[in-house]
Amino acid sequence: MKLAPTTxxxxxxxxxxxxxxxxxxxxNGGITAEAGRQYGSLDTxNGGISVGERxxxxxxETxNGGITLASHASARSLSTxNGGIxxxxxxxxxxxxETxNGxxxxxxxxxxxGSIETxNGGIGLVATRLDKRIETxNGxxxxxxxxxxxxxxxxxxxxxxxxxxxxxxxxxxxxxNAVVDGPLEFQREVVLYVHTSARIxxxxxxxxxSFSTDTAPQD
Length: 219
Prior knowledge:
Elements lengths: L4 H11 L6 E4 L5 E3 L5 E8 L2 E3 L7 E6 L2 E3 L4 E2 L1 E6 L2 E3 L4 E2 L3 E5 L2 E3 L4 E2 L3 E2 L5 E3 L3 E2 L3 E3 L4 E3 L4 E2 L3 E3 L15 E4 L4 E2 L3 E3 L4 E5 L3 E2 L2 E2 L3 E4 L8
């Protein structure tokens, strides 16, 4: 009996096991996810992780190293302890973005379905959509032009300060045509600038200073 070409193709697909995406795990050394390829989880202890353009990866995690994602890349989550996280244009993250000592930046057209959290690192968004909230302790925050934060902003009080000098006040900027849904909660002193075209939720713990120029005033 002669089978139709479509039937043959279907049988071949059913009989061929799907190739699992490759996980990469190291202790020492960086990891590079090549452009356009699909990977599983990427993790290392001492090294940076680079995700190429249009690459698709699972969770990305390092301890001592930065994480970079080229334009149109996608990841399940991003996490580092001592290192920054920088994403190009139209990057997609399905979960949370976290760092302790390092900054976070997302460029135009990017989307993050979770939260962005740092302890000692600034956070910057340009025309980016974040579904949940931004949270930090000592970092500056810039919700740049055209960005949308769905879950508010929270700046936590430091647990301790060994310095004899007064703690530096984080600088919080909500830029032109930016939107922050949800509360803006400040448990420590900050300097808060909100553009006249921006829309924000209720503010507690700070007094907003409005501006109408392209960039916020310098402190």
